[in-house]
Each structure stands twice: as C-alpha cells, then as structure tokens.
Structure prediction request, 320 residues.
Amino acid sequence: MISSWPVDPAGGIKGGGEEPAHPPEAQSMVPKEELKNLRIVVITGLSGSGKSTASRALEDMGFFCIDNLPMALLPKLLELGSASLGEYSKIALVMDLREKEFLKAYREVFSRLREEGFQLEILFLEASDEVLVRRYSETRRSHPLADGVWDGIHKEREMLAELRSLATLVMDTSKYNVHQLQTAIRDLFGQRPLGRRMVLTFISFGYSHGIPQEADLLMDVRFLPNPYFVEDLKDLSGVDARIQDFSLGSAEAQDFLSHFQGLLEYLLPLYEREGKAYLTVAIGCTGGKHRSVAVAERMARIFGGQFPVRVKHRDWKNSK
Prediction:
C-alpha cells in the first residue's frame, strides 16, 4: 500500500509530531504481488565518487533512471507510476545533497517505502580524499558544499555518515576508472534478481597492497604455508592445484578451512536476515598471489551452491 504522505511547501515531509495516517487497505494502489517485482535502487554517496557512471550502467541494464529527484516527489512518483510498472520493473534514483531537503527527509521516506513492501536498495559510493581531489582537479569542477575541495569533501563525509551506515552496499571507487566501475555495477546488479539470496563476494588481496575498503569481513591467512619460498611454486598462482595442495593440504590447514566454513555458515544467514543484499569477504596474505587466492577459490566452491558468488583476485597479477 502506498500512502499519500503530507509534503510541506519547501519540499520536505511534514512534521508536527504526528505520523501521517495510512489510508485503509482497500485504497491500496499496488497489489502486494506487484510490490515484490518492483526493484528500487537509490544511488547516493560522495560527490565525485561515480554516481553518474553507476546510473548510466544501470540504465544500460534496463533500469528507469532519474537524476536528482527531489525527496518529496519519490512517494508521488511511485503512486503515479505503479499501475503501469511491468513485472520486472527496475528504477534507479540518484539522490544526494544537491537536493536541499534530502538530509531532512530520507530517513522517513526510505523507512515508509520499506514498510509499504518495496524492495529498496541503497548503493553508497565513496572514494579516498586524494582520489576525489584528483577527480575534481581533472574536471575543474568546484565542490557543491565549499569553496575548497578538501573542506567540501570532509564536510560531506560528516553529513552523510549516517546514510552510509544504512546503505545496502558501500562501494569504494578509488581504484576504478569509468569502464571498470560500469563493469562492477553490472556484475553486482545483474547477478541478483529480485527475491534471490544475498550476493557473496570473496576477494583475495595482499596486505602489502593495502586492505580492500569494501570488505565486510576480513580473514588473515598469512599463517598458512607460503609457496613463495619454494622455487618450483613461487611463480604459480593460488588457482593452480599445486599451490592449493601445498598451502591447504596439511591437517592444520584443513582444520582452519572447516572452522572458517562453519563461521560463515553461521554468519551469512544472520546478515541476510538483516536485509543485507551484498556481503564481501576479504581474504589476505602477504602478496595476494598464493594463499589468499587459494582460500578464496575454495570458499567460493563451498558456498557457490547456496548463494550467488563472485570471486575477485585483486592483487595476484601485481605480485612478484
């Protein structure tokens, strides 16, 4: 059921201490079965993080995309459009601080949509300060919140901290160019049809190259036997059966894999129960070429029959 929510003249949701009344069930404009088939992705995050690129990628995938929609118009958009939305309708909305009422209204609006039964996903894009400054320099744009880019970035991070904590998926775009970000968006949103299970990503990495910012869970596997010190093995990667036998073949390694699998089998349904649509498990070794790759491949095989699974080996081609 979609309620008609009061809107003040400035464009926000009316306050006043009273919750807006929901119309009777009989006045519902959208059948419950249709709500299940309406997918809404809100693209938000830091200025310069790639929101326009993400929107274009989703548009190419068949999403109906709107940029800078005023928050107060979102409920009305769904009311007006609900009758003509097809069985597989998908909407992507770029919403951020450009709209002055966004911070005031997003909590209530997003909460109401979920109460009404909509499948709402919030994609929060961000990047490191250094990358954002470089992007602003390349485009010669000014930051919307301040005369100085650094000050604007820091102010925006503070203002969006709570929204970031509510996001379905937080994506760090620092290491992506435009084409890589489009590919990442297609991989994520093309793999999870409505109603399916949480998308599980295993990412291998090397601590010498830094911890992945997108990680939800982190596992250090540097205690496993290191093939780097074996002349016949050092040039191979963790996808090779010889590396997997060497690093994962011992009783101790098998015991670890069993405990790691058990931990994930316990945690994943809990994350899914809380509505998490995407979970990234980062697995690290020293260089990101051998042990972390082998473990990520093993976990992907174990959980591939239960969840949509992606595997990403971030550093193996950069390791010497």
Summary: The beta strands are 39-45, 64-67, 90-94, 119-126, 169-172, 199-206, 217-220, 278-285, 309-313. The CA atoms of residues 40 and 194 lie 10 Å apart. The chain has a mean pLDDT of 82.
